[in-house]
């Protein structure tokens, strides 16, 4: 069972004319919630409006997360080439499917789908970065040549989305320690980290190695079978 109708109605009512009193430039608002049966289980989809970046971010909710503790949450940044087309240059689609399957088998959980293509540089610049990678640069070097940081994403909107859904604390499904620190900086209570590991292939192995060595991603050798609360990141 997902969010009950009374809870959905209350969330929509609370957000109808919502304004964030302390951060008007960052205000995030729930605008619609609907049932969404999927191949990964029964979900509900939530559409958000925000005045920070104007993008249509979404949440996919399994089970009842309203005012719950230790909710498994995956922050997934949009990847058109991976998520929709099945590109082997990255592990995005594999991580998305892994997260939806794992959450679908649990009591509850949330996938936040964030419109931050190419680690925040946009689709066109991501393809420009691919061109540079084809010429021999790694993903960090390619971003820097284009005038960007290795990762331009910001998770303030994600933090507000979790607040709008009244999620009290989360177990974050990620290999990226920056997501942990950024969400905590924005007030999200994180009680554990869950690795999301997809087997590498010959096309994305250099990309994954760069993320591990140069961006500090925590790639465990094996995916944990259960969620582990208060897990300390392992040294690489």
Can you describe this structure?
- It is a single chain.
- The chain is of the alpha/beta class.
- Helix content is 34%, strand content 20%.
- It has helices at residues 5-15, 80-84, 92-104, 117-120, 123-134, 139-145, 156-164, 177-185, 205-215; strands at residues 28-38, 41-50, 58-62, 71-77, 109-114, 170-173, 190-194.
What is the fold's blueprint, element by element?
Layout: H1 5-15, E1 28-38, E2 41-50, E3 58-62, E4 71-77, H2 80-84, H3 92-104, E5 109-114, H4 117-120, H5 123-134, H6 139-145, H7 156-164, E6 170-173, H8 177-185, E7 190-194, H9 205-215
Parallel strand pairs: 4-5, 4-6, 6-7
Antiparallel strand pairs: 1-2, 2-3, 3-5
Helix pairs in contact: 5-6
Note poorly predicted spans: 221-236
Number of domains: 2
Q: Main sheet: which strands, in order across?
A: 1-2-3-5-4-6-7
Q: Which CATH class of the largest domain is shown?
A: Alpha Beta
Radius of gyration: 18 Å
Tell me, rounded to a whole number, the average pLDDT.
86
Number of helices: 9
Total beta strand runs: 7
CA-CA gap between termini: 40 Å
The CATH architecture of the largest domain is: 3-Layer(aba) Sandwich
Within CATH, the superfamily of the largest domain carries the name: GTP cyclohydrolase II
Determine the fraction of residues in helical runs and give it as a percent range.
Answer: 25-40%
Silhouette:
globular
Q: What is the CATH topology classification name of the largest domain?
A: Rossmann fold
Structural class, judged by helices and strands? alpha/beta
